[in-house]
Amino acid sequence: MHFMVGRFEQPGHSLRVCRVHLAESQGMRNGSLFDPWQLTEGIRHAVETIEAELEESIGGFYLCVDAESSALVKLQSSVAFDDSSHVISEDDVQRLLHTLRTSPSVTASSTIDIFGVMYNLGGNGVPCQDPRGLRSRVLEAHGYMLQRRNETLLQYLRCLKYARIRVRGLVHPGLAVGEEYLTEEQRREGALILDLGYEGCKLYYFFDGHMQAQVYLPIGGRTFCRDIEVVLNCKVTDAQQLKYAFGFGSSDEEKATLGEAPQQHVVEYHGDEDGEPLASLVPRILQARMDQLLGLAEEAFQREGLTVRRCPLGLMGGEALTLGIERYLSRAWSGEVHLIHPEVFQVPLPIFTGTYAMLHSLQRLGFVDEESDIPSG
């Protein structure tokens, strides 16, 4: 479980990250909840630990909700003012957001929340993140309705409720990362974010200023380890070590790094009849699976009428640290590839990228709402 505590300042001010905390997800195994009570106690203990370190209580909690358990539906609302030179105020923005959140399509029982709002001024179609202080006769808001795919999300929300943690809102990491790490030009011209985790991967496609689609594939670090385990006929623990030791390496520079891999793996998986160490097959195993992942993702977006192959690709997630993966993607993908990483010293790994972006998204979009409360069932 990833916790990040930030102190919200006024709009336009930089956000200060106070604490980063990684806690064991008790009651969960391989992404599945098997003991709600253990998870509830794990959450409660983690929060108490963080508050003890900060020596103060945390004012509000927001939950990261992703493509595995949710779907997004686009919403739109607008308001017109009497004067073409009207200066948009905070009250105007909040009134428009209230209209968006109370529209008839949001009353469905499967709806969780509305967020990820972008604005247009005067109906010109140019997206704007913060319209306050600008002049326009018409203000439009585009948001996303989050709908649950299954009961998993509600189970998590119940655990949070029983842990006496009130969730004030939900934030979608794909939207938040796109707003924080993609430029306005990239969001307009087209960009893809690949969040590669251990259980699976999520892909988010931005175009025309907004996130157009998201795809979840059950292919991730665990799949890579299983492939190595089967091909090399080794133990799961050895497969994981081999994955990190050899990774996607294939260039001369990476082969030099592979030479520093633990010798017991080279000896234990000694080689075939030609004397080549079987562990040297690891990069090819991972590359074959990655090629399949990219192909499936491209097909999924094509079914929605979207072409993503040539757009820039941002890579994030814990598995993004696997040796050579960024370099391999640069060869396998038609567009530019870069690693997305928070620029804060408290965040040692890109696994916190989505959480870090969430904080900035909440501050920038004025998402802190004392009255909001998420239903738990």
Name the descriptors.
3 domains, 12 helices, Dna Ligase, domain 1, 377 residues, Nucleotidyltransferase, domain 5, alpha+beta
Structure notes:
Helix 6 crosses helix 7. It is globular and about 75 Å long. 36% of the residues lie in helices and 24% in strands. A five-stranded mixed β-sheet has the order 13-12-11-14-15, sandwiched between helices. The chain has three domains: 2-67 and 151-171 and 342-364, 2-Layer Sandwich (Nucleotidyltransferase, domain 5), CATH 3.30.420; 70-148, Dna Ligase, domain 1 (2-Layer Sandwich), CATH 3.30.1490; 183-340, Nucleotidyltransferase, domain 5. The two termini are 22 Å apart. The longest helix is centred in the last third of the chain and has 22 residues, at 282-303. By secondary structure, it is α+β, with helices and mostly antiparallel strands. A hairpin with a 2-residue loop joins strand 12 (201-207) and strand 13.
Q: What's the short story on this structure?
A:
The protein is of the alpha+beta class and 377 residues long. The protein has helices spanning 36-54, 90-101, 152-162, 173-181, 184-189, 221-232, 236-246, 252-258, 263-268, 282-303, 325-332, 353-364; strands at 2-7, 16-22, 28-29, 32-33, 61-64, 70-80, 111-121, 127-128, 138-148, 167-171, 191-196, 201-207, 210-217, 313-316, 337-339.
